[in-house]
Amino acid sequence: MVAESASASNIFADSLVYRLFFKGLVSDETTTDMEEIVKAGFGIAICDEANTLLYNMKKLLNGDDVINPEEVEIKALICVLNVSIQMELRNVMICCGDYQIFQILTGRGKPQPNIVHLVEQVQHLRGKLSSTEVVLVPRADVIILAIEAIGGETCCICRENTDADRMFFTDNCFHRQCFSCVNRHVQRMLLCGISPTCLHFPCNSELTFESCSKVLTPNLIEFWKRKIEEDLVPAADKIYCPYRRCSMLMSKTALSRETNQSNVRACVKCCRLFCIDCKVPSHSGLSCADYKKLNPEPLYDVKLKSLANKKKWRQCVQCSNLVELFEGCNHITCRYIYIASN
Q1: Domain-by-domain residue ranges, the chain?
Q2: pLDDT tens digits, residue range 160-180?
Q3: pLDDT tens column, 272-296
Q4: Model pTM?
Q5: Element (H, E) at 36
Q6: Any transmembrane segments, and where (predicted)?
Q7: Which is the CATH superfamily of the domain at 161-231?
């Protein structure tokens, strides 16, 4: 689709520098019949110095005619340069989102033999303009142009055909999956206590909260925020509110003494008092030892310890988590190095 744009020379001031954005994309997909297909396309945009959009275009290419992503990228640049010349622009800034292409355009890199003729065409078109400064911009600023040009994509995880605006791309590797798959993946990873990574095997690019928040459910966003806060507290400094309807995570060092008793603290969420030494509700007037005698461990704690002994689980000496030796030597890492006993 091409947006209507005026091309009269008196519309565009000679002193202004216009920004040219371009991005090409090649996507390998598998149909429901397990047929491999290639989709390619590019998008271009021209903006003024105030980032007002003056022109944009998206074009779907024949995948059979496309050899590699660099070729599509250069074709997108050729297209936006041609449009700039037709609009009689004089000074342009070429905003490039691909580092390799940026190196080629600035003379620091050598083009592959199969795109030499395209690069020569680019340089010829640049010569028709008064100035063509090349700047490197984040890929995230331009890749949406190409994704929209291709249109619907097949999610590599669920194999469902999805609209381009419902596809998520990872900041670092730019692998693409549908919003639903990303949402389920992040939820599973967080529930396992693992930082979410790219779904594309074997890529391990980290998924950031900022980039994922637009595709996650409100409950999952809140859950991830809590995990980020938990990760900021050192394992040895973590303490949870002993009241079951609260269980707020807190930092021992950040808690202030609430009474003249050195071991009494108040939960930052429910404000109820508890003993920081034995991690139970406040037992004013009783020592920790006396309280334990009068209040034996609940049945579920006894059952858990019995199960841990049966399964030969061990408790981390620093964070108190139960850990299991699955395979390998007797060294177990649970935030701290712990040597499991036989």
Answers
A1: 9-147, 161-231, 235-296, 304-342
A2: 777 766 778 776 666 778 888
A3: 999 988 888 888 878 888 888 887 7
A4: 0.46
A5: strand 36-47
A6: none
A7: Zinc/RING finger domain, C3HC4 (zinc finger) (3.30.40.10)
